[in-house]
Write a sequence for this structure.
């Protein structure tokens, strides 16, 4: 999947007297480019089902603030995840191992500026685990 978005403020005048005008700036949280790839392979092993999945999600650069100040710009980044799952022959029990953000990419999830104070939130690091599912 690929998405292209050229989202800009038509008119965004904060204070005409002070010359604070964000008209024409890129909308916040609106990257121009975003795409993802995902591959899934499923096969039977005896009476069980085995599935492997891998995904890559690319998010283009974007701004956290409508002034499009360089400090509020988040550079583009890509996230990779993968999993392997086996569903037992009873088809109601599965065990999955998974990992997210496999390359440990750091990126901001929020950036809020008030006067000279900036509050930022950061992404989760590499995460992995095991999930056991039982359907009743």
């Amino acid at each position: 999947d690929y998405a292209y978005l050229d989202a800009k403020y038509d008119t965004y005048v904060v204070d005409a007297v002070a010359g604070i005008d964000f008209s024409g700036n890129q909308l916040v949280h609106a990257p121009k480019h975003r795409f993802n790839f995902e591959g899934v392979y499923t096969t039977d092993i005896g009476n069980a089902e085995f599935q492997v999945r891998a995904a890559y999600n690319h998010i283009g650069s974007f701004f956290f603030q409508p002034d499009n100040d360089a400090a509020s710009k988040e550079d583009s980044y890509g996230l990779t995840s993968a999993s392997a799952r086996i569903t037992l022959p009873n088809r109601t029990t599965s065990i999955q191992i998974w990992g997210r953000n496999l390359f440990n990419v750091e990126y901001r999830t929020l950036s809020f500026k008030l006067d000279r104070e900036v509050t930022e939130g950061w992404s989760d690091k590499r995460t992995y685990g095991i999930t056991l599912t039982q359907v009743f």
